[in-house]
Amino acid sequence: MRMQTILPGFDNPVHDAGRIFRAVLDAMARPGRVVSLTGLSGTPAGMHVSTAAVALTLFDADTPVCPEGFGDDSAAWLQFHCGCPVLSAPEEALFGLFRSGMQLDGAERYSGGSESYPDRSATLLVQVDSLREGDQLRLEGPGIQDEQRLAVSGLDRAFWPLFARNRATYPLGVDVILCAPSEVACLPRTITARGPITCM
Q1: Tens-place pLDDT, residues 28-59
Q2: Residue 3 has pLDDT above 90, yes or no
Q3: Which domain holds residue 174?
Q4: Residues 6 or more apart in contact with residue 44 via CB below 8 angstroms
Q5: Is residue 5 part of a domain?
Q6: Contact in structure between 162 and 187 (CB atoms under 8 Å)
Q7: Residues 6+ apart with CB under 8 A from 161
Q8: Can you list the alpha helix ranges (DSSP code H) found in 115-176?
Q9: What is the rounded CA–CA span in Å between residue 93 and residue 6?
Q10: Is residue 64 part of a domain?
Q11: What's the mean per-residue pLDDT of the chain?
Q12: Does the bond joining 64 to the residue before it have cis omega, within 30 degrees of 0?
């Protein structure tokens, strides 16, 4: 039986968790704004530093997680550091993690909340190659004055029609955090994305 080595988490857990939490809150309040997330020595195979940093900050024993496309090492790392239940059923998860390059047609299986409790919806962490180059998008909505430009590469193009349908269900719907290797940008359910990909 192979003994599994669990990689470390934050270099300075208390300081780093507080710093990342503030950065994610700022990114969610300013949709499309790219923020840097660092502070880890290593991550499981296939998991970006930014994805791991968000997980260490937001996941706990009360946040069931569904890591899609990640291996057993990632599940063990999440359970060890966060104490979160790791599920295979997206419908029951509060967080979904999508590995880079995945097709995202399964994203619609995550809960968008209910009319009584729209806040009980899932948040999706979707890994991408870059938030500095690629498809040029124009974001509009609350938290944005006029419009915000965002470039994304390495994202399944099926995501944008899915995101448009998600926007149409507001106040229900999932929120999305796009995770480049060491940066994130947030797309709350309130945002409309326009660009080279038609998503209206």
Answers
A1: 999 999 999 987 878 898 999 999 999 999 99
A2: no
A3: 13-194
A4: 7, 52, 70, 71, 73, 74, 77
A5: no
A6: no
A7: 199
A8: 159-168
A9: 23
A10: yes
A11: 90
A12: no
Cα 128–Cα 131–Cα 136 angle in degrees, nearest 5 = 105
Whether residue 8 lies inside any domain: the answer is no
The one-letter amino acid code at 74 reads S
* Owner of token pair 């009980």: 120
Cβ neighbourhood burial of 69 (10 Å; 0-12, 13-18, 19+): middle
pTM of the model: 0.92
What does the H/E/C string look like for 104-149? CHHHHHCCCCCCCCCCCCCEEEEECCEEEEEEEEEEECCCCCCCEE
- The tens digit of pLDDT for each residue in 138-197 reads 999 999 998 999 999 999 988 889 999 999 999 999 999 999 999 999 999 999 988 665
> Tokens 């359970």 belong to which residue?
79
| AA identity, residue 140 | E
- The answer to whether residue 3 is domain-embedded is no
Q: Measured between alpha carbons, how far is 176 from 28 in angstroms, rounded to an integer?
A: 9
Q: How many domains, the chain?
A: 1
Show the tokens assigned to 6.
């669990």
Count helices and strands (H / E) in the chain: 4, 9
The domain that contains 39 carries what CATH number?
3.40.50.11310
Q: The tokens of 190 are what? A: 């309130």
In 3D space, the residue among 103, 105, 94 whose CA is nearest the CA of residue 174 turns out to be 94
